[in-house]
Amino acid sequence: MNAAMNKAVLITPSGKPFEREVLNGLLERGCSVALPVADAEEANGYMEGLSESNRSRFIPLIGASDDEAGIVETVGRAIRHMGGLDMLIHGAAIVDEDACYDADPAAFGRQTSAALRSRMLYSRAAAAHMARDKKGHIAFLLLADSLYYADYPSSPVLNHGTIAMMKTLAKELSPFRIAVNAVTCGCYADPEERTDRKALKQKLEIHALKPYLPQPQELVAASLDWLLHVPERLVSGQNMHIGAGMDTFI
Q1: Gene3D superfamilies in the record, alphabetically (predicted)?
Q2: The pLDDT value given to residue 15
């Protein structure tokens, strides 16, 4: 096992199809991974299909609550089980914000605020530990805003709040040598969706001609390779883009 990859990572829950891909990708790279889950049934669902070696490095945090005290306790449990914490990865939010807003605008506002608050509390709890060692990495996985117009479940409102949070945290945590970055993924082909690939590519040609549609695991693999190898003391406050289907920023 590559010692450089033997990192202790806490990931927060996200939506399909990325959550399991992130978990499997980290375990395959030799990391120990903790994930908050609701109950033993959900934990067993994640355990299924894992090799014995990977299963021994997966720590499901059963019964994690989402209030401030619960999040601090959950992060503490992760640190005790893994013997430390090198990285916190916030999973990509896969939410149809348009449908949520149309159904109940007030509920949409509350849900978005709650999601941002949860990300901030997890980040703050993780940073409190990382600051003692003056090293660590907090990362946010996002799906490109512009893919919303090709009917992908991207979350532009939550994304913008997350990017603002990422930049603020990067500045505040700089004295403690904690890197804070985002990785924004482009288009992909969801293996569970029976979508007309030709029609989907035509929608995406505003971003790239005849765009390549990777599987979710390809985007996750590229994201993790970057996150696990980036020189943390040199790169912080950045939004790394991986894949097609995104606007170009200079």
Answers
A1: NAD(P)-binding Rossmann-like Domain (3.40.50.720)
A2: 67
* C-alpha distances in Å from residue 97, one per residue of 60, 88, 105, 218: 29, 25, 10, 25
Domains observed in the chain:
3-242 (3.40.50.720)
195 pLDDT band, cuts 50/70/90, is low
Instruction: Count CB atoms within 10 A of the CB of residue 37.
Output: 18
Give the contacts of 123 (CB within 8 A, at least 6 positions apart). Answer: 88, 90, 138, 165, 169, 180
Q: How far apart are CA 200 and CA 212, in angstroms?
A: 11
pLDDT above 80: residue 9: yes
Write out the two tokens for 37: 């889950």
Question: Residues near 157 by Cβ (< 8 Å), separated by ≥ 6?
Answer: 97, 112
Residue 108 · residue 101 · CB < 8 Å: yes
Q: Which uninterrupted H or E stretch holds 59? A: strand 58-62
Cis omega (within 30 of 0) for bond into 153: no
Closest alpha carbon to 26 in 215, 233, 245, 227? 227
15 dihedral zone (left: phi>0; alpha: psi -120 to 50; beta): beta
- Arithmetic mean of pLDDT, 150-178: 93
Is the pLDDT at 250 greater than 60, yes or no? no
**So what's the pLDDT on residue 206?**
65
Q: Which of 22, 27, 33, 31 is nearest to 3 (CA)?
A: 31
Least-confidence region, from 112-116, 175-179, 203-207: 203-207
Looking at residue 127, its pLDDT comes to 98
Largest CA distance in the chain: 52
